TrEMBL record:
Keywords: Membrane, Transmembrane, Transmembrane helix. The chain crosses the membrane at residues 12-32, 44-63, 91-124, 136-157. The keyword Membrane applies. This is Tricarboxylate transporter. Residues 15-158 form the DUF1468 domain. It holds the Pfam family TctB. The lineage of its organism: Bacteria, Pseudomonadati, Pseudomonadota, Gammaproteobacteria, Vibrionales.
Length: 164
């Protein structure tokens, strides 16, 4: 008898996520305010199409997936070595820092928010032991790009909060 080893994949979980995303996105799309003139549903068509497409693709992916292979992928993820776990933590921190950057970009302005973002990203990649170099690079980049865009190119970036 042959012992067939299941090759791990994330298809089932990806399908479930895609269906969930489509349902939530579709619900939020349907709750959008209607257009004041013209066809009231015009602003809803494209986002609703994205939601429906996400649900269809998720359903196909879920139907074609092997649940055992997805469970095996989850088990492999839990039991992976410390180097891979550390890499996944850095990816997670990068996602958190990016979300934080998007949230503080307008209130804090380009220079401060970009400095904080770059400093955090450089700290994640090169470690906190290089914090002086990271701070210098982040500050030089933020100020230089702000100067180039605002002064030389006449393209407005969000200013510093106290220079409003």
């Amino acid at each position: 008898m042959e012992n067939k080893k299941v090759r791990p994949n994330w298809d089932a979980f990806t399908g479930i996520f895609s269906i969930g995303f489509g349902l939530i996105y579709g619900g939020m799309t349907y709750a959008m305010p209607r257009a004041a003139f013209g066809n009231p549903l015009d602003p809803v068509y494209f986002p609703m199409g994205v939601a429906v497409l996400s649900i269809i693709v998720g359903g196909i992916l879920l139907a074609k997936s092997n649940i055992k292979a997805s469970i095996q992928a989850w088990v492999d993820l839990i039991n992976e070595d410390e180097i891979k776990k550390f890499d996944r933590k850095r990816i997670f921190y990068t996602c958190l820092v990016s979300i934080g950057y998007a949230l503080v970009f307008d209130p804090l302005g380009y220079v401060i928010s970009t400095f904080m973002f770059l400093f955090a990203m450089l700290s994640i990649t090169s470690g906190l032991s290089e914090w002086k170099k990271s701070a210098a690079i982040a500050l030089a980049f933020s100020v230089t790009v702000f100067f180039i865009f605002n002064t030389l190119l006449a393209i407005s970036l969000p200013p510093l909060p106290f220079m409003g």
